What does this fold into?
Amino acid sequence: MCGIVGVWDKNKETTADFVDSMTKCLSHRGPDDSGYFADKNLQIHLSQRRLSIIDLSESGHQPMKIDDYVIAYNGEIYNYKEVKTELEKNNVVFNGDSDTEVLLRAWQQWGSASLDKFRGMFAFAIWDINNQELVLCRDRVGVKPLYLYQNDNLLIFASEIKAILAHPKVKRELDNEALQLFLQSGYVPAPYSIFKNIKKVLPSQLLIVDKEHNISSNTYWSPESLNSRHKVSADIDEATALNELENIIIESCSLRMIADVPVGVFLSGGIDSSLVTAVLKKQGYDNLSTFTIGFSENSHNEAVYAKAVAEHLGTKHHELLCTAKDAQEIIPKLPEMFDEPFADASAIPTYLLAQFARINVTAALSADGGDEIFGGYTRYNSGLNIYNKFKKLPSGIGWFILVVAKLSNFASAVGLIHQNKVHKFKKAHLYYKNRHSITDSYATQNSYFTDREVNQLLLKPKFLFLKDLYSHVSISSIKNHIRKLQRIDFNTYLPDDVLVKVDRASMSVGLEGREPLLDHHIIEYAAGLSDALLHKEVGNKYLLRQLLYKYIPRELVDRPKQGFGVPLNDWLKGDLSWLMDEYLEKDFIEKQGIFDYSIVENERQAFLSGAQPYNRIWNIIVFQMWYKRYLN
It folds into this structure.
């Protein structure tokens, strides 16, 4: 696990000192080692910070040069020994036992075809000295980050935006389209970043940069890839499917325990993390350490469930409570941690959990992805129900819904109805407008602000909204509506929210996060299952739940889905109320010139009165914190 930096400066104005300053911005990602490479013409610079996990010796040092290829790499290839054996059969000789060397020699041997052989998480750059060609690649799901800046004769890439911003030629400019997407979703979705000219390399994206800085792009994998190694029979029975799926999950979890340092598991007590923990215990990992964060507020505390699972399985369990005081200390760190506004409040306990786990382990398994792969979110059912209901409405009723929505504004202004009713009427009108597209309907469901509300909030609104982003997700070949919604989340929410959160929180304290349920073998297998089997009891992750029952009594895990929630509603009205005072202050907002202060104040009052939950005002606060850190 590492942080990587690269610069291709055709003007030859980038110095080694520049690159050193950029790389130091990523010291938290790799506290164990650092390295630097520059080509003889001083156009290409590669640098890296290393967190040693596999092969702790100097043979894993990066950037690594073999013949006319140089690699800077962040991640883990879990099946590297298998790939190494295959290469050795082709008479390839190795200098050490690092997965970095395996990756580079595999690329030399097979080129882009090597990507199909790797099971792991990665973001890497390979410089081909002879052909003056740069390869940039990100893993299938987007577990590891990679950002790209291109302007004139300068191309920069890095694991985090802060390293790119450290280059003196890079200007800090707000991308207003990205801001709109953030306000609606709570994160900045790819390919955008909050900065102009800085983009996210997409999951499964392979970029080839030639000597003229022309970039060719290729998507090398999808869940339904033709080269899928798991061809599931259309009439497979449930028992067979469960057996095959269990074997793949066992293999995936075992691969992610390969390390030369201690490895633990994040355990929430939910279906996914309990299954991962149970599988590992069954496979003989008797000294397994598990880590849980809880809250003193009972409505948000899952620690009691995690403790019960840990006691049943016999793990070395560690538990810590997250308090409002902890949040006070962590929240000011969020802009520096994420480099972009990031409003997923579970980042607060995730950081605390990573910090807590790092005391005992250097890597930890996190059971993300089960909801997106196996249909675990309740919003899939509700989204389909909303779409089906509004689709059936006659075309002439739209004017009535619009009139009701407008009248509700007046009724709220004179105190006749609560403001939260107004928002529901506005959404109802949007659901009606979008009744012919489940993609647009789902965007409405997932948006904290409607398109119109965003336009009212911003002084200079753009015309890019969450529904426009969703429309670019490739779902035309998918017939089942639930699978369409799963794919939208898989391509947006999972890589740009969930995985960003885990990566930044863990790497900020030098902890490697590993994702066993996001092994592409599991994803491909689930994609091949019939709708009837995959979606049996939608929102309940039926297949994963049935597997878990083999290891853990039902009464320990059968409860409504809770999620990794945070009691921000209470905290923002109590110990954290200062955040609204500081970041929503009138003079600051008016001088800033981004938001309409009167609308911001309305949002604040709506939250304080209970008319709106914390999410909308929190999104604004988070952006303001980021703005003060990076642009003010």
In short: Residues 232 and 529 are 6 Å apart (CA to CA). The first strand starts at residue 2 and ends at 9. The longest helix spans residues 238-255. The two ends are 33 Å apart (CA to CA).
